[in-house]
Design goal:
Blueprint: H1 3-21, E1 25-28, E2 38-41, E3 47-54, E4 58-64, E5 75-76, E6 85-92, E7 98-104, E8 116-122, E9 133-134, E10 150-151, E11 157-160, E12 165-169, E13 174-177, E14 189-191, E15 197-199, E16 203-205, E17 213-214, E18 230-232, E19 238-244, E20 252-258, E21 267-272, E22 285-288, E23 293-300, E24 310-317
Antiparallel strand pairs: 1-24, 2-3, 3-4, 4-5, 6-7, 7-8, 8-9, 10-11, 11-12, 12-13, 14-15, 15-16, 16-17, 18-19, 19-20, 20-21, 22-23, 23-24
């Protein structure tokens, strides 16, 4: 094969790879209810997804060993079998362990337990999980978690709950209010490489949460904090989801992007637009796979799409997010 033919083959394969990379990959076929996926990628590169298959009674886990191109058959998450739940979040800790937080619902299936937020840890990329432990809570107040925790250098966790925002010490199981003590609500809180905290409440802090400044033109995360997300990439860019269009699930999903430590949000990147209404709230969740790629999990339960209702994973080159 001559040099021109080799070059032509390389260009063709590169184009095909890029085309495949931007095609949603089906992980599973959810049934109904609160599907709300969670995702993390372990230090070994294994991607783990949790999602609700059937409303409040069938939380499942699937894993990918090849960057999200193929996925294991979803299996029940061991600690919610025969119990009601509401989906929560996944976080990869600095020591490589995976942290799963979820919500124990108060309607019993076979056991009567009060609603609470529980967490469990895995040190083998999501195959086995420690016994659940609760976060501190007020028994008289029903609380919920939906977003990954933020791990501090002290190994404590910032946990953003519906009714409180705490710094939790997993060693002592004790907690203190975060920063100035305000309740941020059911929104993500992220820390940038510069040490800045950005809250889905539309505020940012450069002094560890003691004081906060409002962010102009901030994406509307607050009104539906359980639905939308915000993540910080290793390069410091922040991504927040927006679902556009009328109806229950809108018609397209895009990122609003900040390139300047959360001060302005002028970047836009649309990554899902099926040309019809999206059935379901999508609830996208994003992780960084490597220095060049992110991955986002979301659902679309339109019964008329090819293959029927689906939970999907999409690989996106970070270069696509560059300011235009």
């Amino acid at each position: 094969m001559n040099r021109l033919a080799v070059l032509s083959l390389f260009v063709s394969l590169t184009a095909l790879a890029g085309e495949n990379e931007l095609s949603p990959i089906r992980i599973a076929v959810p049934v109904n209810g609160h599907i709300h996926p969670a995702i993390c990628v372990g230090n070994t590169g294994v991607i783990v997804v949790m999602y609700g298959r059937v409303n409040h009674v069938d939380l499942r886990i699937s894993r990918s060993l090849d960057g999200g191109f193929t996925w294991s058959e979803p299996v029940p998450f061991v600690h919610t079998v025969n119990k009601t739940y509401y989906p929560g979040s996944l976080t990869t800790l600095s020591d490589g362990r995976l942290l799963h937080c979820w919500n124990r619902w108060d309607t019993p299936v076979t056991q009567n337990e009060p609603r609470s937020v529980l967490y469990s840890l895995s040190d083998d990329d999501g195959l086995a999980w420690s016994e659940p432990r609760p976060f501190p809570s007020d028994p008289a107040v029903k609380t919920v978690i939906r977003h990954p925790i933020t791990e501090l250098k002290s190994k404590q966790w910032i946990v953003s709950l519906w009714d409180r925002t705490i710094v939790f010490d997993p060693t002592s199981s004790k907690s203190t209010p975060f920063g100035d003590g305000r309740v941020h609500g059911l929104v993500p809180i992220v820390q940038t490489p510069q040490g800045t905290f950005v809250s889905g409440d539309g505020i940012r802090s450069t002094d560890n949460g003691r004081t906060w400044q409002a962010i102009e033109n901030f994406p509307d995360i607050k009104s539906q904090g359980w639905r939308h997300e915000m993540v910080c990439l290793k390069n410091g860019w922040l991504l927040a989801s927006e679902i556009l269009g009328p109806g229950f699930g809108g018609e397209s999903i895009r990122y609003r992007i900040s390139y300047d430590d959360g001060q302005t949000w002028n970047g836009l990147y649309e990554y899902y637009n099926p040309g019809r209404a999206i059935n379901g709230r999508a609830c996208p969740r994003t992780v960084q796979l490597d220095d060049e790629t992110i991955g986002v999990v979301f659902y679309d339960i339109d019964k008329d799409q090819e293959g029927g209702p689906g939970l999907f994973f999409l690989r996106i080159p970070i270069s696509n997010l560059t300011a235009q």
